[in-house]
Amino acid sequence: MNPLWSSVAALYRMLPCSRNPLMRATDRLYFSAVIVAVVVFAASVPICAAVGTAAYSSRSAELAADRATKHEVEATVVGVASISSPEDVRTGAAGAASTNAEVSWTVDGQTFRSTKRVTGRVAEGDHVSIWLDSAGERVDAPLPTSDAAAFAISYAMLGIALSAITLLAGLQLLHAYLAVRNRRAWSQEWELFDRNPRKFQE
Q: Where are the transmembrane segments (predicted)?
């Protein structure tokens, strides 16, 4: 017999609709549950993708609204304090990986000051970029628009992972329950065999 045909025939004998006399009702139930789980998981993938698309649109709108309330300006460095990184301390490297710079800026004749951590070295009088809100107060820089895509992908992948875990856990619980039932059925059949072995030989 063709090996491919043998494999197909063996697979068919495992299906719930097959007439395999060796397959118990519990086996048919379990394989039916496996087929349903595969169908449900396949259906959940486009649903999770749609949820991810909705999350992307929502996140993009949030980022755009946040960016609209902020604007970037140049501030003047009025004081510096070097900071050595842990690696610099261990290796004894000269210089600082970053600098705590005290910066100053003016909005509508009012001067503001704040501390900004700057990568590398800066000196008094240098200019650095900072972000301000509509009142001229310093705020965190807006998140990049790529954050929306990463957020949407992680949201969709989380949904797919939760679907897979839930279905696998359900199948595992069903398999454990059916295994207990099978063991009980086997015990009962062995008891009947011990009582009347001739009946099973007829």
A: 29-56, 148-174
Is there a contact between 73 and 105 (Cβ–Cβ < 8 Å)? Answer: yes
CA distance 115 to 140: 12
SS3 69: coil
Task: Report residue 20: phi and psi, to 5°.
Answer: -60, 115
Percent of the chain at pLDDT > 70 equals: 73
Classify the phi-psi angles of 200: left when phi > 0, otherwise alpha if psi is within -120 to 50, otherwise beta. Answer: alpha
Instruction: Look up residue 137 and give its two tokens.
Output: 């107060």
**Residue that has been written with the tokens 């395999």 in this structure:** 20
Helix, strand, or coil (residue 137): coil
Q: What is the per-residue pLDDT across 1-26, written as a single tens digit (0 to 9) for each?
A: 455 555 555 555 555 555 655 567 77
One DSSP character per residue, 164-176 reads HHHHHHHHHHHHH
Cα separations in angstroms, 33 against 172, 174, 202: 11, 9, 35
Average pLDDT on 97-123 reads 81
Shortest CA distance to 170 belongs to which of 16, 17, 14, 32?
Answer: 32
